[in-house]
Each structure stands twice: as C-alpha cells, then as structure tokens.
Design a protein that fits this description.
232 residues; alpha+beta; 5-stranded mixed sheet; 4-stranded mixed sheet
Length: 232
C-alpha cells in the first residue's frame, strides 16, 4: 500500500510529500540547476529539497585554516577565547590542532601548518562567535586588549547586533557579537562605545536600527525567514 503522503501523477511515479487536493493533480517540482547538473530526476530532486528543508538538516560544524606558527595560534584561541584543545597530531607532514568550545563537537576550529610565509592577504573575511550579553562581550574585549597578538580592535553596532572586531596574531579577522532583539536591513556598521552602561549601548543600537528600512522585532524577521526557507 502506498503511504498517505505519497500520490501518483500522470506518469504513475510516486510524488513524495504531495497529496491530491480535491482530485487535482499536484504541481510538479521544477528542476534546480544543481539537480540538472547532477542528472537527478524530478522525484530525486524533490526528495533532496524536502530533506534539506528540515530544521537542523544542514548545520555549520567546523572550519579549518592554515597557520604559520601553530603553537602561538593554538595558545591564542585557548587562552583568549577559551577553546579547549581536543586533539593534535600529524596528517602526513601537516601538524593539526583541534579546538572546540562545545562538548558535542570534537572540533569547531582546526589549525593546520602550511600557510605560505609570503602570503600577504588572508582570504578569511571573518570568523564570527556569538556571546549572550554585553558583560561577556566586554570580557572578551578586555582579554583581547591584554593579549599582545590581538590587534585592530573595534567596537561597532550592526543595528541587529553589537560586535567587537579584532585580528588574531596572524591577521585573521574575528567578530564576537551579541544579537539584538530586533532586525534592520543590512549592511550597517557604526561605532559604538562599550564603556557606556548597558542601557545606553542598547539605546544607541536601537536608534540606528530604527532609522534603517524594514525595522522589526527579531521574532517577526525569524518567522519570515522560516517561511522563506520552507521551515514554517
């Protein structure tokens, strides 16, 4: 017996996740460019879309970057940002250090030897880390200010977030940020004074956000995004 959520179209092939409504044939899914390139059928493309639309079906886990001085970089991420070294070793001739702040993730960051010494430009635009409140954001800023390897420190608001930006000892840009309870159109980046009281910092961020198009509570923006992503 065919499952209730599987019906047949003109060709007699099952259309997964679709039902007949009042006797009308379901709308056939369209080929995506990726599916056409992979040679998938309509049914296979539709199944792939349904699988990937599920919340949590595809989540970011970790990233790796090549470094010049692996011990210096490992120390920075352990001591300044509180990562735990979970493993280290050789893979061929490359030395690897695995770092994480989540016990469910063996590693969130991998450092690997092999960065060319004459590389004058980092292709990493930024690595962003979230904190829950301004007190934690200020503590990260304090630790960055105390570390000789951190440089180019700046405090900004994006309207929908309050951030500090800083470069690690090898020039990779880090963002540490706190979400605001509202959304506004991006991009936006303006200086903010984190030495002010919490209420003043939040008021400054909100005033900038309210002057941007599409200002709305974060919950409404998240509901809109869930709908657009097929997760509503």
């Amino acid at each position: 017996m065919m499952p209730q959520n599987v019906t047949e179209g003109d060709t007699g092939k099952p259309l997964l996740g679709q039902t007949l409504n009042g006797g009308h044939r379901p709308k056939m899914p369209q080929f995506s460019p990726l599916a056409r390139a992979a040679g998938l059928t309509l049914d296979e493309d539709d199944v792939m879309s349904d699988l990937l639309r599920r919340p949590g079906a595809l989540t970011f886990s970790h990233m790796g970057m090549y470094v010049l001085d692996i011990e210096r970089m490992a120390r920075f991420y352990r001591e300044v940002l509180g990562f735990t070294e979970t493993d280290r070793g050789l893979l061929g001739t490359a030395q690897l250090v695995f770092l994480s702040r989540d016990p469910a993730e063996h590693h969130q960051l991998v450092l690997a030897t092999g960065r060319p010494a004459d590389l004058g430009f980092s292709v990493i635009n930024q690595i962003s880390l979230r904190v829950p409140d301004l007190a934690t954001l200020r503590e990260v800023r304090r630790r960055m200010q105390a570390d000789a390897g951190a440089h180019d420190l700046a405090s900004v608001t994006h309207g929908n977030a309050i951030s500090i930006y800083v470069r690690d000892p090898e020039g990779n840009r880090l963002e540490v940020f706190m979400d605001c309870p509202w959304y506004c159109e991006q991009p936006l980046r303006e200086p903010v004074d984190l030495d002010l009281p919490d209420e003043a910092v939040m008021a400054q961020a909100e005033a900038m956000a309210r002057n941007r198009p599409r200002f709305q509570p974060r919950s409404e923006w998240m509901a809109e995004m869930a709908h657009r992503m097929g997760q509503a």
